[in-house]
Amino acid sequence: MNPTVKQSIVDRAIERDPAAAASEYLAEFRNDISGFVSREVVQACVTVGERERPWSAAHRYVGFVDPSGGSSDSMTLAIGHREKDMTIADVVREIAAPFDPESATEEFAKLLKSYGISRVTGDRYAGQWCAQAFQKRGITYEPCDTPKSGLYVDLLPKLNSKTIRLPDIPKLVNQIAALERRTSRGGKDSIDHPPAGHDDVANAVAGLAHCAVNRRTFSRQELRI
């Protein structure tokens, strides 16, 4: 739409990312990005007025960590359990940047132990740093085999069927509702936060939901330790 922009620039942009270039230079609506889930669906899974649930001897808890180096992204932790077909997110904690990673790990390790958790799953972040940091504090850290986008795919049917109970944390609702589904040039879908956005809290809850559903495998691994 701007006649001062050289056609060669437009051509190169279209070659790199056709959908983005069509939106930027050709005034066309993007068709490779869509919303992941509506705010109404997410809000329907929230237990209004309940931000956190205390430990109970009746439940076996699992946890998921979304770590960070402390300079820009938050470090988050979600703890929860299963009740029949329902996944309950009991605790969702966030340590916003900037922070000291060792201090954040110490805080999360104490919280995990208070819920009887000695083994936590988390994102594949910074090689062995997370595993070593948690191991020093008596917590075994296992990288998750499912990528973040896959965790969100697994979370969607739980949201739609209301088989997950979320705490009343506005940031959590906002991050899940803001997620975008993007289709690459090769036709593969991915789900992530919008540009300049964040999904640290949402990622922790999606990881927790995945671990809670697969809790039987998780428990057998614990028994071998």
Walk me through what this model shows.
- The radius of gyration is 20 Å and the shape is globular.
- Helices cover 40% and strands 20% of the residues.
- It has 2 domains: 1-31, no CATH class; 39-224, Nucleotidyltransferase, domain 5.
- A 6-stranded mixed β-sheet has the order 6-5-2-3-4-7. A 3-stranded antiparallel β-sheet has the order 1-8-9.
- The longest helix is centred in the middle third of the chain and has 14 residues, at 101-114.
- A hairpin with a 2-residue loop joins strand 3 and strand 4 (86-95).
- It has helices at residues 7-16, 18-25, 39-43, 101-114, 129-135, 148-160, 170-178, 200-213, 215-224, and strands at 33-35, 62-66, 75-83, 86-95, 119-122, 140-143, 164-165, 180-183, 189-192.
- The termini are far apart.
- The protein is α/β, with parallel strands linked by helices and 225 residues long.
- The relative contact order is 0.18.
- Mean pLDDT is 85; it is low at 14-23 and 216-225.
- The protein is built from 9 helices and 9 strands.
